[in-house]
Amino acid sequence: MLAERNRYVPASEIRKIFNMIIDRPDVLDMTLGVPDFDTPDHIKQAAKDAIDQGFTRYTHNAGYMDVREAFVDKLRRDNQIDADPASEIMMTAGGMGALVLANLVLVNPGDEVLYPDPGFVSHFAHARLAQGDPVVVPLKKENGFGMVAADIEERITENTKLLVLNSPNNPTGGVTSNKEIKRIADLCLEHDIYVLCDEAYEKFIYVDEKPLFVGSIPEMKDRTVSIFSLSKTYAMTGWRIGACVGPSDIIGAMVKLQEHILAMPTSIAQKAAKAAVSGPQDCVDAMISTFRKRRDLITRGLSAIEGIEVNPPGGAFYVFPDVSAYGIKSYDLVLKILEETGVVTVHGSAFGDHGEGFLRLCYAVSTERIEEALSRLDRYLPTLLK
Length: 386
What we know:
The model has no long low-confidence stretch (mean pLDDT 96). The protein has helices spanning 13-20, 41-52, 65-79, 94-106, 121-129, 149-153, 178-191, 248-261, 267-278, 282-303, 330-341, 367-380, and strands at residues 28-29, 89-92, 112-117, 133-138, 160-165, 194-198, 224-229, 242-245, 318-319, 343-344, 346-347, 359-362. The protein has a seven-stranded mixed beta sheet, sandwiched between helices. By secondary structure, the chain is an alpha/beta fold. It is 39% helix and 13% strand. α3 runs parallel beside α9 (267-278), α4 crosses α8 and α10 (282-303) packs parallel to α12 (367-380). It is globular. It folds into two domains: 4-39 and 282-381, Aspartate Aminotransferase, domain 1 (Alpha-Beta Complex); 41-278, Aspartate Aminotransferase, domain 2, CATH 3.40.640.10.
């Protein structure tokens, strides 16, 4: 009875774990990537003002023009990307809304979509929804889980249409170096491949190198779609607002498709987004500083546990320790840890076959929670080696 496409789109394994612990206040949850900060006051005030001022009706399918103009200014300032607000940028229902629209617009049945593994689970799902053929590009521990051009080149065929790039990466925190970004751009130009840049964690960078955005490379402007979510940067996960920038023909097709799916993202969230990118950014700086300290804390703590190998993640707010020494499948290990310690983690295999042997822990939680989780893990995990 159901459409055939439903067979090929898997449910999230992260939610599978999360659903196990609903209504369990006794556990230490380190699963979902939700910042434990509140949305900054000036952003909330902008939403309240929008309601009071009557911004509660339909907008242009691409979003309010003044909001798009604000994002154009943000792109120039933060990402060195130039865009025409009338034709090359649109507001979307979070980064997820843009990701699925881009796949539906770019991918034909049988087109191959290269995507990172371990990686965000929806990258696979969106390619399948578009009836494309997802092709894994492995992210390797020895490369800091950054994407490497040579690994991409090995997997390019005459059917390769799209490359999904996510740096910093979810779930590993891996950052792709600027040198590799340039090599990847050259490959895409040589083989006529489009790039879909998932920039959800653009601000969460802990390496010294200032990031190079593919969409800022002049030769790549006509074949790069870049997606920016406000969910993580401004602690706005529930607001469901993001922006997408790219060539006018692609954005135009996405706007047309968005009209038939949700018309446009919420008008009030759009006005809040304008305040977010146009207003003071010290709230973001403070949040990043806190996450950097938490990253250092959890990395040191995990490294001290017998059987764990981990390097400091270069970005995002996840740590991805190697737990293969325990000789237990990552899903089974997650269940054991939950049962014995009450610490809730996510198995690496939830993010693809190349994630087996690892766990993901989100450190977008308080220092006290991190310290307690580390203490419980340190008491339990070494016993598995005996």
